[in-house]
Amino acid sequence: MTPTPIDPIVIGQLEIRYLLDGSATGGLGVFELIVPPGANVPPAHAHAHNEECVYILEGTLRYRVDDESRDLTVGQSMSTPRGSVHAFSNPHPVTAKALVMLSPDIGAQYFRDVKNALGGGGPPDRAVVAAIMGRYGLTVSARGAAPRPT
User: Is the dihedral of CA 11, 17, 23, 27 positive or negative?
Assistant: First the structure.
């Protein structure tokens, strides 16, 4: 059975294209993440229940897991164990596209909830976003959102 892609979810400058939503079964989730240069990104955070792996399809994505930060290019990947603090950014001149795999998946609904919370324009209400993240087992870290390469 071939999964049916879900309509893209656009949050600010980021685009999430879910290819496989595993949240209903507690299984693997897979989505494309498109990050334009200089895009606003989520704060550094950790997943209590999920492992994550990011694989670069296009461009370069700066990705940090705990104390390791790397500029990942096409064909490179980096994994995030449960509980590890991670963040990403794109300070490069070209749009980056990554394939993100979560196990088990938090699901496309998480991204829809965040989009709806940010839909009013203006600065984000960090408390509202943190509450949404908490419902899905994510916690915001005190670390900054824009990792520097090591």
Answer: negative
Q: Model confidence over 54-71: pLDDT tens digits?
A: 999 999 999 999 999 999
The size of the chain, in residues, is 150
Mean local confidence (pLDDT), 78-84: 96
One CATH from 3.40.50.720, 1.20.120.520, 3.30.420.40, 2.60.120.10 for 9-140: 2.60.120.10
Residue 51 reports pLDDT greater than 60:
yes
In 3D space, the residue among 120, 110, 48, 116 whose CA is nearest the CA of residue 84 turns out to be 48
Among 134, 79, 125, 126, which residue's Cα sits nearest to residue 106?
A: 134
Task: Specify whether the CB–CB gap between 101 and 52 falls below 8 A.
Answer: yes
Angle at 52 (CA atoms; ends 150, 25), nearest 5 degrees? 175
